[in-house]
Design a protein that fits this description.
23% helix; EC 2.4.2.8; metal-binding; alpha/beta; Rossmann fold; four-stranded antiparallel sheet; binds magnesium ion; binds guanosine-5'-monophosphate; Hxn_phspho_trans; 10 strands; 38% strand
Length: 176
């Protein structure tokens, strides 16, 4: 068990399980994008660890870009999603959005809106973690690493008020 700020978290997903999920997604993308050069669009800050891990497993050509949006405060998702770092030069490209986690899907809906405005050639969504009970949006997730229950997690890029992103495995909030 670990303590971050005022809350306790218990070990939930091991390094090895994460590595396997990343490898599975990398090989699925390789199969789907043979002969193409997709742009991996990482969503900061949380996806940095996933982008780093995935890009090292991916053996085809790819470009790596980042965008930054913000919707989370503390352990609760809020509806107002803001764009803090926008996308550039994606017109006509095959984009794969890389998300750390899809929860309510508000962030994803905003990103999809932006990609459509940018007139990308195609886009798909890859997420390392997914909370199916919390997701209420229409868009299909193309590549899913690990499905998890609707509980707050930290580690492997995911933070609790700024801390925990550097943890190499994932921890789940311990209920009192
Ligand atoms: P959504 O818009 O799908 O509700 O979630 C947007 C973002 O909130 C995610 O990309 C992630 O950065 C953050 N988030 C969602 N669920 C969790 C969680 O369980 N733990 C942490 N640390 N962040 C989360
Ligand atoms: Mg995120
Ligand atoms: Mg956060």
């Amino acid at each position: 068990m670990i303590k971050i700020h005022d809350l306790f978290f218990k070990p939930f997903i091991s390094k090895q399980e994460i590595a396997e999920a990343v490898k599975k997604i990398a090989s699925q993308i390789e199969e789907d994008y043979q002969g193409k050069t997709p742009v991996f669009l990482g969503v900061l800050n949380g996806a940095f660890a996933f982008v780093a891990a995935l890009s090292k497993e991916y053996t085809g050509d790819c470009e790596i870009e980042f965008t930054k949006l913000s919707s989370y405060q503390g352990t609760q998702s809020t509806k107002a999603v803001q764009s803090l770092i926008g996308v550039e030069n994606l017109r006509g490209r095959d984009v794969i959005v890389l998300e750390d986690i899809v929860d309510t899907g508000h962030t994803l809906t905003k990103i999809i809106e932006i990609l459509k405005e940018e007139e990308v050639a195609s886009f798909k969504i890859a997420t390392l973690f997914y909370k199916p009970e919390a997701y209420h949006e229409a868009h299909t997730l193309d590549y899913i690493g690990i499905k998890i229950p609707n509980k707050f997690i930290v580690g492997f890029g995911l933070d609790y008020d700024g801390l925990g992103r550097n943890l190499p495995e994932v921890y789940q909030l311990k209920e009192k």
